[in-house]
Amino acid sequence: MDDPVAAFDLPRMLFGNEPPLFLAEIAVRTIIIYGYTLVLIRWIGSRSIAQLSLVEFLLVIALGSAVGDAMFYPDVPLVHCMVVITVVILLDKALSYILARNPRLEDVIEGKSIEIIRDGIINCEALEISNFAHDELFEQLRLKDVEHLGQVRAAYLETNGSLSAFKFAPHEHRPGLSIDPPWDVREPRKVKAGTVAPTGEMFACERCANVSATVRDNVLPGCPVCGGTTWHLAHPTNSPAIGDRSDRNAS
């Protein structure tokens, strides 16, 4: 019967129960497994690892477990670890080969790209399905030098979780929902639906970014695109009125 483990046994916590020379063996194990794994990953290609798709993410998890155990567990033979790593790499290569020749299966496993923004208006339903929060969306757009959504012609949530955005030409920019500075840095000016708003101003829906001019004695209605009830002053504020964009978006 094994002896009970003594709590807070510092020598055991720091060095374990193996002889001191095993530390040198750990170093040798690490060098061997690191080099072997590096060769196989080089075979896969750096592009796959950088994208971190679902398949590659699974690959990283599997390799992490197999590689780490062999580096410091004395009862894990190196050859056993190498077999596991090799099989994992071969499975990844085989799956990549199959997915490249079967688009439908690729869509099932990897998913599909989703259009999040079209002509400066957010597809709220797609955003919710993707579990992509507004704050996260705006953060990704700011990293692409987007100040307001009137600059964005289209934005897509790619299968690897990244956001790709395409801007209008500078002369095609239109009023849009401002995302610079971040709302938690400076609170934007907000107007609730049903209240009287300044004449001639353009307002962007807080939820979907649809831009609309005030109507009916300057009273802001609810957003005709998403039903939102909170509006922000559109940016830039001195842009000429372009009318309600909800009709164009619906068409």
CATH topology category name of the largest domain? CRO Repressor
N→C terminal distance: 76 Å
Tell me the domain tally.
2
Biggest β-sheet: strands ordered side by side in the sheet: 2-1-3-4
Care to count the β-strands?
Answer: 8
CATH architecture descriptor name of the largest domain: 2-Layer Sandwich
List SSEs in N-to-C order: HHHHHHEEHHEEEEEEH
Could you describe the largest sheet, including whether it forms a barrel?
Answer: 4 strands, antiparallel
Q: Rounded to an integer, what's the Rg over CA atoms? A: 28 Å
Describe the SSE topology.
Blueprint: H1 10-15, H2 22-44, H3 46-51, H4 54-72, H5 78-100, H6 103-110, E1 114-118, E2 121-122, H7 124-129, H8 134-142, E3 152-157, E4 163-167, E5 190-192, E6 202-205, E7 211-213, E8 230-233, H9 246-250
Antiparallel strand pairs: 1-2, 1-3, 3-4, 5-8, 6-7, 6-8
Helix pairs in contact: 2-4, 2-5, 4-5
Summarize the structure.
The protein is α+β, with helices and mostly antiparallel strands and 251 residues long.
What does this protein structure show overall?
This protein is of the alpha+beta class and 251 residues long. The protein has 2 domains: 17-104; 112-251, bsu07140 like domains (CRO Repressor), CATH 3.30.240. Helices cover 42% and strands 13% of the residues. It is built from 9 helices and 8 strands. It has helices spanning 10-15, 22-44, 46-51, 54-72, 78-100, 103-110, 124-129, 134-142, 246-250; strands spanning 114-118, 121-122, 152-157, 163-167, 190-192, 202-205, 211-213, 230-233. A 4-stranded antiparallel sheet has the order 2-1-3-4. A 4-stranded antiparallel sheet has the order 5-8-6-7, with no helix packed on it. It is elongated. Residues 46-50 and 238-251 have low confidence and may be disordered.
